[in-house]
What we know:
Strand order of the largest sheet: 1-2-3
Strand content: 25-35%
Structural class: alpha+beta
Number of strands: 3
Largest sheet: 3 strands, antiparallel
Number of helices: 2
Order of helices and strands: HHEEE
Radius of gyration: 16 Å
Distance between the termini: 36 Å
Shape: elongated
Amino acid sequence: MQAIKALAKKFDEIGPEELADSFLNNRGSMPPVTAGYEITPESPEPGVLRFYCTGRNATSWIEEVTNLSEFRNVEG
């Protein structure tokens, strides 16, 4: 998750101090978190979980195969 947040923040031109603060803060207190980033999960197809991180000017995402037997199970 941190990687997709970093990508969105990079393209939103967040400075290095704010970026480091966001990584150091995992409880919402100190250092303050840069607001405006939303993580959204979805399941685009059977056996796959995708997480989007949406910022002010960019969206990044990561996909994970959660069930290999369901993932693109094509009978031929």
